[in-house]
Specification:
The chain is an alpha+beta fold and 436 residues long. The protein has a domain of 65 residues: ATPase, nucleotide binding domain (Nucleotidyltransferase, domain 5, 2-Layer Sandwich). Helix content is 39%, strand content 27%. It is built from 13 helices and 18 strands. The strands form 5 sheets. It has a 5-stranded mixed beta sheet. The relative contact order is 0.15.
Length: 436
């Protein structure tokens, strides 16, 4: 029996690094066979600021996942976020030399490649070019132009841009940890694969992933990604505020937040008090839960308001762009008590907490279905898609064996367009090989 190919996602976060290993079962659901988690010490707001510590944390997470699953990990799909990520809308077109031939994959690739040549600010590089909708000879709102006739092919693109140095640093860490680069993807896109369903993406939905160092936003409408943003605040900044406001150490502040924290100050009575042991022989500190939730509330409101500005920038207030499915909260920060109610109060939009469980096999353990693993689950799904595509490609080339025919056999539409991500990964691999 041939060895089952496993897919591995590596989520390099500000508070934790997660290596997750999974495979598709016969029901097309993801079965998680190993998970490793380590404290992330060399990452700040999604950006690597200590290479050595990050490599150690990655190795630790990978070893844990290997020990659990009994499998060796070689290749990983990595998520990227961080405050350096920005996105923009761009329109471009090509004029086809022969309008009597139908539009094919090559035309779309040519158009996408043209967008990759856009001049960015110094030190920036395009990570993703995501086609939104196409126009053929002025006819608008075409989602799939392949097979149509036309001389002028144009499209609107959602372009995601990041800092070259930050991306290379992540790649360097992954490679130095002894792993192969299987692909790179934007973390909000990975999370959205894990927690959103197709109906929500059609109706219009904003996914807010509250991590330790950053809050990621991805907006979908009519099944297409419309807007992405990374806000450089997350759960850690709330912990910082508690630490400062209550004059306690970080470890205690984090515990207080998780155990007793609430985003809604009205919930706590004046006389609810928690006592915190003092440092080495000092008196214990008494903190009222009302004060604690006031501190949390102030910071959470700030984060949500920044996210809401982004949602308004996308144009949520226009009738045509309205997000009918509202907001989905995920990430570790979404587990804060009463957060859902606060988000609904500030934005006036329907809100739910997103768990990555609907894409996982039924017997998945409690841990992996937590919102804090949404990105990791999404990365494993992406890795599984890559593996499947490679298998199809191998089958195709075995069947055909003749290069001229091979182009005809390539799987069509969205699967084939996975090459958008690969271009970037290939460039990165090339750069790393030269750097050594």
């Amino acid at each position: 029996m041939e060895q089952q190919k496993f897919s591995v996602g590596l989520d390099i976060g500000t508070t934790k690094i997660v290596a997750m290993m999974g495979r598709e079962n016969e029901y097309k659901k993801l079965e998680i066979v190993g998970i490793g988690k380590s404290k992330s010490l060399g990452v700040h707001r999604g950006v690597v600021n200590n290479i050595t510590q990050t490599i150690q944390s990655i190795q630790q997470a990978v070893e844990d996942a290997e020990a659990l699953s009994g499998q060796k990990i070689n290749e990983v799909v990595v998520g990227i976020a961080g405050q350096h990520i920005r996105s923009l809308q761009h329109s471009d077109y090509i004029t086809r030399s022969n309008a009597d031939e139908v539009i094919n994959e090559e035309d779309i690739d040519k158009l996408i490649n043209q967008v990759y040549k856009l001049v960015m600010l110094p030190g920036e590089e395009i990570i993703h070019v995501l086609p939104q909708e196409f126009k053929v000879d002025g006819q608008a709102e075409i989602t799939e132009p392949i097979g149509m006739y036309g001389g002028r092919l144009e499209a609107n693109f959602h372009v995601v841009v990041g800092q070259v140095s930050s991306i290379r640093n992540i790649a360097r860490c992954v490679k130095s940890a002894g792993l192969e680069f299987g692909g790179i993807t934007l973390e909000p896109l990975a999370s959205s694969d894990a927690v959103l369903n197709q109906e929500e993406k059609e109706a219009g939905v904003a996914l807010i992933d509250i991590g330790g160092g950053t809050t990621d936003l991805a907006i979908f409408k009519d099944g297409i990604i419309r807007h992405t943003a990374v806000i450089p605040f997350g759960g850690n900044i709330i912990t910082e505020d508690i630490k400062e406001g209550c004059s306690i150490i970080e470890k205690q502040a984090e515990l207080l937040k998780v155990k007793f924290g609430s985003a809604w100050p009205g919930e706590n009575k004046e006389n609810e008090i928690v006592s915190i042991p003092g440092l080495r022989g000092r008196e214990p500190k008494e903190i009222t839960l009302k004060n604690l939730s006031k501190i949390i509330h102030a910071r959470v409101v700030e984060i949500i308001e920044q996210v809401y500005v982004e949602i308004k920038n996308y144009g949520h207030e226009e009738q045509k762009k309205k997000l009918i499915a509202g907001i989905v909260l995920t990430g570790g920060g979404s587990q804060l008590k009463h957060l859902k109610q606060l988000v609904e109060y500030i934005t006036g939009m329907d809100t739910r907490i997103g768990y990555p469980s609907e894409n996982l096999a039924g017997d998945s353990n409690q841990e992996t279905t937590s919102p804090m693993y949404a990105t990791a689950v999404g990365l494993v799904m992406k890795a599984a898609k890559e593996n499947k595509f490679q298998e199809i490609e191998q089958e195709v080339s075995v069947e055909v064996g003749n290069e001229e025919e091979e182009a005809v056999m390539t799987p069509s539409t969205s699967d084939a367009r996975r090459s958008i991500f690969d271009r970037f990964t290939e460039k990165l691999k090339e750069f790393l090989d030269n750097a050594e």
